[in-house]
Amino acid sequence: MRDQVTLTGILPGASDANAATITISLFSDDKCTNQVASFPIQAPLPYSGSTVTVNTYALDNGGTQVAAGIYYWAVSYSGDKFNNGLTVANTCSLEKVTVTSVPVQ
Q: What's the rounded Cα separation, in Å, for the pair 27 and 39?
């Protein structure tokens, strides 16, 4: 599975910015209540001015394997000294992904 997350409006330059993380969580329901996997993006995040864009390769890079089926994404950002943390789960039903097969290890 691959996805891309872009956060905008980030105030750059916080002294603890290198500790901030983005986590993409995978749910089996469109209300984001039944989490089946979590994919943290390790610090330091790739800041470009007030924007952070990360590409995720959940299954391609040794991530948690999930069974074939329909899943939904939610994203959280841990925050830093200048930026509050946030979780974006209210768009869960819009962030749909279909897994058709799982690679053989």
A: 12
Query: Where do the DSSP E strands lie in the chain?
Result: 2-8, 22-27, 35-41, 47-48, 51-57, 69-77, 86-88, 96-99
Residue 10 CA to residue 91 CA, distance in Å, equals: 20
pLDDT confidence of residue 61: 43
Residue ranges of the domains in the chain? 2-99
CATH of span 2-99: 2.60.40
Instruction: Give the pLDDT means over successive 10-residue stretches in the chain (105 positions).
Output: 72 85 86 86 73 61 70 87 83 79 62
